[in-house]
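Input sequence (355 aa), recorded before submission:
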Amino acid sequence: MTSPKPDLSSPAMKRLRYTSIGAFLLTVLVIMLGAWTRLVDAGLGCPDWPGCYGFLTVPTGEENVRLAEARFPDTPLDASKGWPEMIHRYAAGILGLVIVGLAIACYRLRDEGAPWKLALFTAGFVMLQAAFGAWTVTLQLWPQVVAAHLLGGFTTFCLLFILAMRLTPLRLPAMPRGLRNSLGRLRPWLYGGVALVVLQIALGAWTAANYAAVACPDFPTCQGQWWPAMEWSKGFDFFQTVGPNYLGGQLGNEARVAIHKGHRVGAVIVTVALGALLFMLGRRARGTELRSWVILAGVLLAAQVVLGIVNVLLHIPVAIAVAHNIFGAFLLVALINLAYRLYRLESSAESATNS
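Predicted structure, token format:
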């Protein structure tokens, strides 16, 4: 049984669309707050979850502070660390509720063609993401969990973007069959580009989780050398045991340098491969509406490279580091947007041929 074709102009579908866009924008804020929390070393600002020292907010007042420190004697209260953590949790909690509500609404409108399966999957994934948020604290910033939690945020971002795209009327440009086929041949390469960016984001997550961003304080060299001493096996040991506390990292200098250099090498590969792909796609899409989306992806790629270099040269300022984080997410959805539009272009042409 095929799903009915949705009437995206109906009031109910419009409400779903605006809600999904709102959830997508809220995810931008949550990702930025998560990066901010990590960059100001506030990941363990509250040693418990989901509260803070057993309170719903960061404890204030002498009596509450004494009670909090009595509950967690090994982690003295620092409100400047607790508030970033709790603000991030509040925003993530609100996002989770919005996504669950969106999933329920889509399910109720399933007979009208709402993408309920995608919405329910997104809601289920957000619950898993909440679990990773809890494990981030209870396992005291274990790098594997921190990296997975960061990737989970990006995945939620992409799922909501696809959901919003599914609920938005898409104006497809008219073009000759030959041009459409020529663009369609690049779609598998776009999928490869998405995979490359995902791998690079994963490298960035691993770099952040192991506090390796400052391992190379210079650019383009690293600690004054083009290829310094590195311990790749230790830097990329994904089976390291849970330690007592990973705040500040546990790896030695050479292992952190290996992680940082891996991220830099990945950045070069992504920039060259993706730049070439976008160039070819832009040439073939010349004169069509699709070309503006290609240009946007190229601008985001260039901006991400610049932000990465500036991050190193200015020694990881918080604002630039947060921007580098969110621009990586924007680049990813820009590529997904291109792949989705090419897919819809081909599928609409096939439908027209078969009808």
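Checked by second reader. The chain has eleven helices and no strands.
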